[in-house]
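Researcher: Sequence of Formate dehydrogenase accessory sulfurtransferase FdhD follows. Predict its structure.
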Amino acid sequence: MNICQSPAIRVDDDRVAETIDDVCIEESFRVYLNNEFICELVASPSQLEELGAGHVICEGLASGVSGVQVSGDEIRVHVETPEERCTTESSESSESSVTIEKEHIFEVMDSLVSEIWEITGGAHCSLLFSDGRLIARSEDIGRHNTVDKVVGYAILNNIDLSTCILGCSGRQPAMMVSKAANAGIPIVISRSAATDKGIRTADLAGVTLICFARGNRFTVYAHPDRIILHQGL
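Model: Prediction complete. Tokens:
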């Protein structure tokens, strides 16, 4: 479950006690693209094939993946045609006809649950919905990794990302939004905040960016035309 136990001392007011605490596991992985080292990722040790596949897509290094091999701390991703790092302006997000009902935004957020977070308080979660159903969910110590993992799942299972909605637990700076844009995902929903550059990235890339989706409210920062509210904005 990406969790281990650690001895600790817990202090609660005047009470001090030895305890055993559940904590997240953190490991480092070296990622290769067609046998060329590209980066080292710090991540939870699960869904590593998905992590590698999704990372090269979300970073704009490839448009497809032909295979992924994991051995020890090495993740080797193979693609037929590597690309120069693409820009968010060239993504397919703006071409997607996907829309979302207001009620479905809340359904997506209701599915954004992380067992690891509930146990440790140390993990993020992302998920993908398509045609109203949950198709992937990932948990990781890094919010960027959770997006890579769900995108990687879609790539490895031939799921059209232009039909998908991405739900995230973490905030949305430019680097997070650009991952969705490079993958061609048209709608991003987050429980957390956006930054100014995250909003600008979404606007330029044609990504609908919805943040602070908590309870029965949310805030739309870019491309609200994909949201069906049954009333004017």
